[in-house]
Amino acid sequence: MNALRSTMSLAQVIATALCLMHVSPPSASAQYIITTIDVPSATATDAWAMNNSGQVVGSFVAGGVTRGFVLSGGEYTALSVPDSTSTVATGINDAKKIVGTYVAGGVTHAFLWGDGAYATIDFPGATLTMPRGISNTGAIVGEYRANGVSHGFLLVEGEFTTIDYPGASFTSYASGIDAHDRIVGRYDVPGSNYGFLLSDGEYTSLHVPGAVSSAALGINNRGQIIGGYTIAGVRHGYLYDDGGYTTIDAPSATFTTPRKINDRGQVVGVYGVGGTTRGFVATLAPNG
User: Fold this and answer.
1) Partners of residue 114 on adjacent β-strands
2) Helix %, strand %, coil % for the chain, to 5?
3) Which CATH number do you get for residue 127?
4) Who has the most CB within 10 Å: 50, 79, 122, 154?
5) How many domains, in total, are found in the chain?
6) What does R_g of the chain's alpha carbons equal in angstroms?
């Protein structure tokens, strides 16, 4: 990992970017304090995951090149797999093990970063492998593509297991996993897609009422699930907790996609504004 030339404290980066993110019903109303994450000198930033220590990983575009980043203690550090043309960090656990993707020779591969080194972790025979989450036990979930079809996967101690929602056209991806091995993701049926929860070998479909499509993207050890849904062509975020959905939309955003939620209830993701993307961290406001 290389420290970005222009580093600054988080407070400096977002000094003017603090605002309230209003969370509308279904059943409740709450307020989050949203902190925008913009990598210095980047034209676009995407925040993918956040561990319980507040370290954030994601990707940014600068000079037409996509690289990963880690935001820790107010300092941004760039991630770039050697000899790759693109790197994206998609998950981080409390041990600071990082997963993500890189492109080399036109092929998208998966990586695991730890102890100062990158290791490739491709699903055998796949044309694309993309990890999307890593738990504190080191279990990794994501998607792989083979014969033109996407599947979810679970990787534990070097062994891959395919995750396919029963009866689905295909399972697009597994996206999040907690320390109890509960897995969330997305599956597709003709004309739509839905989120799912896989727990103790049983699948549960997750779908925001009235939505055209839904996806479940992250889960914490409290069982809270974060994801996205589309209504009238607009992408919104949601929190699923205690059997109910709560909408999460960043102010003035063209879309909002929460990607992960940590055990403190902090939400990390990306939103669109002004023709570009910005990362965010949302924290529940006092009495919110």
Assistant:
1) 117
2) 0, 60, 40
3) 2.120.10.30
4) 50
5) 1
6) 18
Nearest to 211 by CA among 227, 195, 229: 229
Render pLDDT for 212-237 as a digit per residue (tens, 0 to 9): 999 999 999 999 999 999 999 999 99
Contact 262, 51 (CB under 8 A): yes
β-bridge partners, 1 = none
* Nearest-angstrom CA–CA distance, 280 and 273: 12
Query: Nearest to residue 79, comparing CAs of 94, 58, 63, 97?
Result: 58
What is the share, in percent, of the chain residues with pLDDT greater than 70? 89
**Is the separation of the CB atoms in 219 and 225 below 8 Å?**
yes
- Report residue 160 as tokens: 């891959």
Tell me the C-alpha distance between 14 and 169, whole Å.
43
C-beta separation of 275 from 252 below 8 A: no
Q: What's the rounded mean pLDDT across residues 16-28?
A: 39
pLDDT in tens, 54-112: 999 999 999 999 999 999 999 999 999 999 999 999 999 999 999 999 999 999 999 99
Residue with the two structure tokens 């839904």? 214
Give me 103's structure tokens: 């492109």
Give the DSSP per-residue string, 21-43.
Answer: EEEEEES--EEEEEEEE--TT-S
169 burial via Cβ count (<10 Å: 0-12, 13-18, 19+): middle
Task: Report the amino acid identity of residue 270.
Answer: V
**Residue range 196-208: mean pLDDT, rounded:** 97
Tokens standing for 134? 């890593």
Whether the predicted pLDDT of 288 surpasses 60: no
For 6, the domain range is: 2-284
The answer to whether the beta carbons of residues 192 and 212 sit under 8 Å apart is yes
